[in-house]
Each structure stands twice: as C-alpha cells, then as structure tokens.
Amino acid sequence: MGESWSFLDTAESNFRPLVVIELAKGTKEETIEWFTKRIVDKKADGGAQLLIKPLVTENGVENIYLVGASHLRLLLGAETVGLVKECSDNSMRTFTYSSRKTFKHFADDNHDFLTMAECQYIIKHELENLRAKNEKIIPGYPQAKLYPGKSIVRRLLTSGILVQIFPLHDREELKKLSHSWYGRVKVGYQPLDDIRCYFGETIALYFGFLEYFTFALIPMAVIGIPYYVFAWEDYDKYVMFATFNLLWSTVILEVWKRMCAILTYRWGTLLMKRQFEEPRPGFHGVLGINPVTGREEPVYSSIKRQLRIYLVSLPFVCLCLYFSLYVMMIYFDLEQWALDYHKENESNFSSLMLYVPSIIYAIVIEIMNRIYRYAAEFLTSWENHRLESSYQNHLILKVLVFNFLNCFASLFYIAFVLFDMKLLRQSLATLLITSQILNQFAESLLPYWLQKRYNRRMKKRMCSRKTDTDLSVAEQVNMEKEMGTYLGTFDDYLELFLQFGYVSLFSCVYPLAAVFAVLNNITEIYSDALKMCRVYKRPFAEPTASIGVWQLAFETMSVISVVTNCILIGMSPEVDALFPDSKMDLVLTVALVEHLLLAIKFIMAFVIPDKPREIQMKLAKLEFESLEALKQQVRAFQMQFHFLLIHH
Amino acid sequence: MGESWSFLDTAESNFRPLVVIELAKGTKEETIEWFTKRIVDKKADGGAQLLIKPLVTENGVENIYLVGASHLRLLLGAETVGLVKECSDNSMRTFTYSSRKTFKHFADDNHDFLTMAECQYIIKHELENLRAKNEKIIPGYPQAKLYPGKSIVRRLLTSGILVQIFPLHDREELKKLSHSWYGRVKVGYQPLDDIRCYFGETIALYFGFLEYFTFALIPMAVIGIPYYVFAWEDYDKYVMFATFNLLWSTVILEVWKRMCAILTYRWGTLLMKRQFEEPRPGFHGVLGINPVTGREEPVYSSIKRQLRIYLVSLPFVCLCLYFSLYVMMIYFDLEQWALDYHKENESNFSSLMLYVPSIIYAIVIEIMNRIYRYAAEFLTSWENHRLESSYQNHLILKVLVFNFLNCFASLFYIAFVLFDMKLLRQSLATLLITSQILNQFAESLLPYWLQKRYNRRMKKRMCSRKTDTDLSVAEQVNMEKEMGTYLGTFDDYLELFLQFGYVSLFSCVYPLAAVFAVLNNITEIYSDALKMCRVYKRPFAEPTASIGVWQLAFETMSVISVVTNCILIGMSPEVDALFPDSKMDLVLTVALVEHLLLAIKFIMAFVIPDKPREIQMKLAKLEFESLEALKQQVRAFQMQFHFLLIHH
After folding, report:
1. What is the percent of chain A where pLDDT is above 70?
2. A51, A62 contact by CB (below 8 A)
3. Measuring CA to CA, which of A484, A521, B304, B405 is 20 to 30 A from B323?
4. Domain segments of chain A: what residues?
C-alpha cells in the first residue's frame, strides 16, 4: 500500500490502469480487503481475476483503486462478452480465444487489438458479474445483505460503500480525437470510427444519427429558403413543399435504418448476441425463485407493479398533462395582454413586447420538461421494474408523451382552434429558437464553463506547469473523478425528436424551421463533442445495434405530421378559393390526399429493405456457415453411430 | 425383385413403408440402379442411408418404390432436421440423439416416439438433401445435367424421370382421425393435436385458424341477427355495431397471434430453427458461384428478374385489373337492364331476374379469380425466383391485389359512387352467398364425387370384397397414387381472407354477413376435413410457426375496413340529419372518429403482447439455459488456460 505510483508504473509495465473504483471515505478495512481479494481471485475460485492497485496521492490513501487486467485476461473476457471483430478475410465474426489467429491485426504482442473502450467494457462486465458465493452479508456491513449469485458491485453501489466506477480517459488519444473531431473548423464527416473506438457504439451511433439527420435536413432547408426570401405564399408551392417534406421524412427514416446497419455491421454490434439481462441495480423485492433462471433472487409481483403504474403513475402523468395545458392557457392570456398593450401604445418597445410571452412560455416549457423528467425518473424507478430495458421503455414513454404535449399543444391550439397562421408562424419560430438556445446553453456551455473554472482551481492547487497530457495518473484520476457523469443519450435524442416535430409538424407554414434546425445541429455536433471530451467523465462503452425505440418515435412523429400538414394545407385560404362552391369537396379532397399519403408512406416503409443488399448477403453467409458447422457436428456424431446402424 | 410383398411384410418386420416414389414408365435400368444405390448408401459415402423396396403388384413391376428407414436412422434424421420434442420435465427442446433419454415417451423400442408424419418429413428431407457427388449427368440421361451439391431428387423431378414422391396414408390412423374429426355430428373443438400428428403443422394451423376465426365471428353474428330480425335502421345502433366490429376485428387478430404461439409452442415449431433455404426446384440459370454459400450452383441475375417483374408482370397485372373493372361495368349495365325489365313487366319472374346479374357476376368473378390464379403462377414461376419464400411472396401479392379488386370493386363502386345502400346490401349478399356455394362445390364436393367414382371403378377392377383398412399395401399405393395432390393452404386462406373482407368492409350496411360467414365456416371445416382425408393424397408435413404473410393480409384488411365503415356511417341519412346546418362538421367529425379508431387500433396492436406471458417465460428460460451452457463452455475453456494466465 505504501509503494508510490511511479514505482508501480515502471516496474509493472504490464499494468495499465483502465478503470477507477472510488470507495466511500471511511470504508472498513475488512471490506476493502475482501472486495480486492474477490477482484483478483482466480475465475476458478469465483473471482474476477483482474489486477487492482490502490491510488496513492500526496494526500495519502483516498480509497481510490485502479483496475486493470493482463492482455490474456482481456482476450478471454472479450470472448465472454461476445465481442465481434473483423477477420483477416474481412468478414465479421464473434471473437473466441481459440480462433484468435484468424482475426485481423491480431498478434500476441499487439496490445491494441482490443480498443481501450473495449477493454474497459470487458472490465466493467467482469466486475458487474462478480457474484456472491456463500457470503450472506458484505463483511463489515451486516445491513448489506447478499445471497448466492447477487452481483457484489451492485450491492456495494446500492448500499453506498462504492461511490462510483468509471473508466479512465486516455489523454493522448483524447487529444488526437478532439483535434480531428472539433479541433479545427472543417467541412466533412465526423471521425465516427474513432469516436466509436474511444466512446463505444451507443455514443458513436448518436453522433452518426445527428450527422445523418443534419445532412438529411439540408434539402428541406435549401427548398425552404426561397419561401422566406421571396415570401412565397402560393398554394401550389406550399403543397409541393409539404408533400416533398412528408415523403422525404419517410425516406430519410428508412435510409437511416440502412445506414445504421452498415455502421453497426462494421462495428460488429449488428452480429453481437444479446446478453441475458440481469435485474437492474435499483430493483428490490423479497427473495424468491426466479421462474426463468431457477436462481434465488429478489422477486416483485407483476400485479403490484401494474397497480403502481395504473393507479399512481398514469393519474400523475394525466395531472401533469392537465397542468401543462393550464400553463398554455395562461400563455394565451399573456399573448392577448401583449397584443392589447401593443394596440394601445404603438411603439418599438411594444412591438418587441409581442415576442415576450412566447419567449417566457418557451423558457417555462423547458423548465417544466426538466422538472417532469425528474418526476418521471422517480416514478419509473418506484415502479420497480426488474429489467433496465423495461425501465427505459416506461421512462421514455412517460417523457415522450409529456414533452410532445408540452411543446406542441400551444401550436396545435393556435393552428386548429384559433386558426391564426400568422401567430402560429411567430410562435413556432420563437419556441424553436428559444429552446435551441436554452438547450445549447444548459447542456454544454454551462457545464463546460463550470468544469473549466473547477479545473483552473484544481491545477492551481497542484503544481500546474504541466499540460494535460503530462499529468500523473494520480492527478488525472483526481481531476476526472470530480467531473460530471454523462447520463446517456436520452436527452440528446429527445432534443432531436422535438426538433423533428418543430420541423415536420407544421412544415408548410414555416419552411424556415429546417434552416434553423440545420444551423442548430451543426453547432450541436460541436458542443456535444466538446461536452463528451471535456466536460464529462469518460462513459463506459455500450454496444448497441440500433437507436432502438427512437426509430419508432421518429416514425410516429412523421405519421402525425402527415395529418397536421394535410389539415393546414386544407385550411389555407388559397386552397379554400379552389373550391368556391362546396366546402365538402375541399374536406373530402384533403381527406383523400391524406389517406393516399399515409398509404404511400406505409408502402414505402414496407418496400425499402431495412438492410442494404450487401449486408443482407454477409449476414446470410454467416448464417449459412453456422448452419453448415452445426450440420458437420451432427454428421460427425452420426459417423460414430455408423457402426451401430449397420448392426441394428 | 421377384419376392412378393407378403413375404417382405412378414420377414422384414422392420421395414415399414412410409413414402412412395413413382418413376416414369420405361425409366432405364441403370438409372434405377444408381438412384436406389444412392438412397441406400451409407451417409459416410454420401448416400441417404434409407431402406427401399420395389412394389410388386399383380401387373408386375411398375417402377414404384417404397421407402422406409430404420428406427435409429429416423432418430438421427430427427436431429438433422432439428425437430423439437417435449422433455420429461415438460419443457420443449431440440431433439438430439445423445440426449434422447431425457425426452418424454422415449424408449429404444417405442417406435411411436416420432409420429408417422414426422418420419415422412424426415425421409422427404433426407431424399431432397441427397446430393450429387462427382456425377456430371444422371446415368442413362445425358441431357439431365448434375453438378456437385445439386439435389438429385429435384433434378430427377425437373427432368421428368421422377413422377412423384408422396407419403403413404395410414388407413388405421386415418379412420380414427376422420371419425373424431368429422365422422360424428358433435359440438366441440377439432382434434387439432391429432390433425397435427397426421398432417403436420401447416395444415393443423390452417384448421386451427379456421376454427378460431369461426368462433371469433360468432359474437358479430349474434349481434348482427337482431339487426335483420327487427330491421333496425337507427343510426346509433349501426354506429355501435360498426365500432364493435372494428375493435373486435383488431382484438381477434391480436389474440390469434397469442393462440398461434401457444399451439406452435406445444407442437415444437415455435422453437424450431429455420433451415437454410435451398433454391426452389424450378429455379434455373447459368452455373456460377453463389456468393453466400460459395458453392457452384445456377445463378440468375437479380436485374433480369427485376426487369421481368416491372416490365412484364406489373403491366400484366394492371391489364388484368383493368379488365376486371371493365367486366364490372358490364355487370352494372346488366343490372340496369334487369331493373328496367322489372319496371316494365312487374311479375314474380322479373323480381327474381333482379338477382340474376349479381349471381352471374359472382360466378364470373370466381372464374376470373381462378384463371388469373394460373396466370399469376405462370408469371411468378417465369420470374425465376431463387427461393420458394420469395416465389410465394410475389405470388401472394399478385393474387391478393387482383382478388381484392375483383371481388370488392363493384361494392366500392356501388357504395361510394352510386351511393345506393339498398343495392350494396343486395349485391353484397349475392356475392357472398354465391361465392361460398361455388367454393364449397368446386373445392370439396366435386373432387370428392370424382374420387368416389374413380375408387368404385378401381375396387371393381380389384377383388373388392375388402374394406379400406384391409387393402394390401400394393392396392393402397395404386389407389393413392391416382388421388389429387393437395396444393397447400393458399386457396383456403385466400377464401377466408375474402370472406373477412365481405364481413368487415361493409359490416355496418349488412350485419347479417357474419351469420353467413359462420354458417359457411362450419360446413367448411367439415368439407375441408373430408377433402384432406378422402380426396387428396396425404401431403408431406410442413413445420411452421405462424400463418405468415396472411396475418399481415388480414391486418391490412381490418385497417381498410375502418376507413370504409366510417365513410358508410358518415353517408347514412340518419347521421346526416344530426348535422342539419353544416355538412362540413359532419365530414370533420367522421374524419376525426376515423383517425381516433385507427389510433386505437395501432395502440391496441402495440399493447397486446404477441405471445402470452407463460410462453414468453418458457422462451426466456430456454434462452437463459443456452446462454448459460455457452458460458460454461467458455469457462471450461478458460480453466484450461488457467495455467497460462498465472505464468504470463
């Protein structure tokens, strides 16, 4: 425990710190001893067989530990988690230690075969799968109960002994990545493969989607500009724009699935087998037998959960929706008041005042969204879902419904109750722009500024003549452990989802929305990149094969936008003028067009294959090979029975 | 070759004839010798390792062969095809020979462990997978080319040397089955498990669906009867009926998925792994390398196929659709003529004449459907699809689009162009009832009558004092080989699909349709059962896990029916009267209700899980076990490297 870090660094060149474990201050010695022993214990004895070292700083021992693993251990771990890597023949295959020689860039001394993010993911997986054997409690903490098979790390986390586990940044790599990512002003794609190597697939896929979505919006933006510049208000031009928008939004969502398949095939996650889902850390219940695994673990009755969902969560969400509508009505009162004020005292100030209610309302919407977010998290966690995926689905559903109503209810009201297209355009513009500014500020710039101030203070405290890359491990760990934790891509996707709503729901009224969206997304790429590289702790890589439920959310939004746009076009005075005799004909025509567009959308979604032909072929080839291998096995087995068969 | 059958029957009690192979008359001796040798050859030598005996009748050798297999061979074959059977602990598992003892009812001397249908399926699979080794041609037929890996049986079939392969009936079992199925008039379910054992999963699933669908229609029929009896014409009652119908049709389709999962789980096909699809027998092309398998096999350019589809098939289908609409217009002329005639000479005869055009039109529709069916088959086969599934999908799409338009175009025209609800009701009733009568006649009664006449002649020729079950194998084979071939469930599902259209598309105009559908389906069950047991050759069992594309077809129909019913209700004079001031409000309300119903439908489809919780748990358990087994394997492997790890 007394060795200094410089010694360890040189003497054990093998040990590369990958993951940091921070225990609570004052954790009992016996607990630490037991925990570190379990981590280094051999697999055969139920340990994780990893390497662990205490971090010794100038202030002495701080209950911070660095975890690493030998190269061989990491390779075996890669097999356990089912990593898919590229073979020498350019096909993607599940890595196994015995077939390691067939993989591209594999050499026994090539320690870069696994990326650092992969190594950290493997270590996280091994730590999380370190399970209690016969321990009934965590030594030293009799109130922290264990049962055979319970993940030790999860219990340590829930009982507060373990403060956090996080992967270390690689200052060298990070510098390279941030330079090529956002360091220089350039026109071009993001280094998605590098991002994936450093941050893992989930985050790389988000940035891939953000980039793709921005490019996809450009045609809409380009077509939208002349509408603003020349103040086109003709009916046929609007219809053209809206129709283009609707078909385009279907196409881009379908094409994204193909792009996503290409990316995740290259990254290997498209082929990765789903791991069996363990209960989420917060899940609690009485000990019982899990009917699926047959193991003893906490069991929570599904009926109780249903009751919580339908008797508490559902009414609460409805109440929030009602409250949101109530706030909206206040906004319309304010709007009316501003209008009256403007009429009474016609001045520059009063015309500026016209925008104030919208801006205030946009800010209030953002605040309500954020508060609701916390409430939704609390409620969903209280619903006590067993699996993380089920928790996520319930959370996303709650948040999406509320945010959709909160953001768009006023616009729907203006469009379909007040029939005020001018107000709709003004309101849409104010909401969109205000929310974009607020988001950029709250998400990236504010944390960046706070982080920068903190870093300056930290450096002052330490002897700070060094640059970032020269920091000792101890200094690096101390700096990074204070950084904020990146909570996943949820908020980022949600922002894009709402933006997609602003752009597509009322596209025929405000073609300029796409322009603002493109501009916002370009800065968003930079600020999100900055956020990932400078503001937050490095997140653990998370393999993923798609953007999951967000695909469905975006598709639903594009279906809703067909309906709203058709109604808006039908309501425009130019279209009205086309049917001077009968409003009936107008409505019937609009309804017919809407149904046709919806039918075309569904047919297009059905006809465009989700995976490009090339990827389909590669997948078919892999499937064929595995079936052949199985057949070979059966055949080999049958050969052995050959003798039996003859004499039967 | 000279041994008589009675000798073989007693001496080789082991040999049970399962499958009949009929070669063309005058097939060369050398070909027969080579083919039978390949069939009996050992697996290790590339043979099928089956048993084969020539069938000797009074007329001497007729190039008919009986194929069987030893019990052990069948068990090994069950492993090859991946059969899933029930274990002693009631779970379903993929059968392997090494784990055979763990399966329910398994005993080395229990020859009923595999059902006869399964044995025949295994033999069919083994015969189809009997592949050419180094043969370049079929011996004796230089024009019948072979290449390594080509299925011999498929080449023999396509070059006309092999006339047919069919499984033998089991007279004993068939008698039992037909007695419990349709032999006595009873109220109750069909013996689906017995049907599955005898005819395989695809056919059992069709009968399961037919039965389920009939039961599901009963509530609609019950609610529909009072509308007819009391001649209810109130607006609110129609709306209630239509709304109930729409939601009900969604519910029954969702619940069917669950029922289907329960059935196929019990039958093991839900868990059965998909086999790699070989090219369909009719597929041809120049020899090339298949990029997926790397094998040499016929390759046909995808572009050529696309050209055939878009430049020939698509215009042809459009032409047929146009022709169908043309015929429809002739029908309306006839209708007008009949009406005029009735007005001129008001008599009983003339009022009967009113129904004649509809009846003629219904008959013409049926004839056109059947002719088109042949054309579609020819065209799809000419498109030269590589896989049977792709062929089927293109065929089904072609047939569905045409049949839908052909059957319903006149009804749509009457409803939405002529606005004649009385004619719609009359037309719908005539079409529905006529098509049902024609179908029952053409599908079952006619073939049954022909078959019966033929059987009588056959029996007269043979010494015919025996009953069916006492027939010798030779007599049985000779009788069965002349029976018609059952061409799959396509036509049966299509009939149900069109019936579903008649019932749901215009349900609010003619509530009695469901009653006729129920009556038809009850007789349909009996006539289809009769057809399967008495008219056709026994078909090979075909494992399947769902009704496939038909689920989608039925769901699409139920979406279309939401639209048509909403329009119909909106058009009714009673609803009109509710909005005396503004037709606009009426149309808007109808549109709103329609969108709400569609939204409810989609949400219901999304919320109702496709598999019952119980099945989900069982599947999760199996998945967990296989993942655990994999983990164990990896762990065992890692143990071996334990030594290495320490010294690394």
Report:
1. 91
2. no
3. B304
4. 19-168
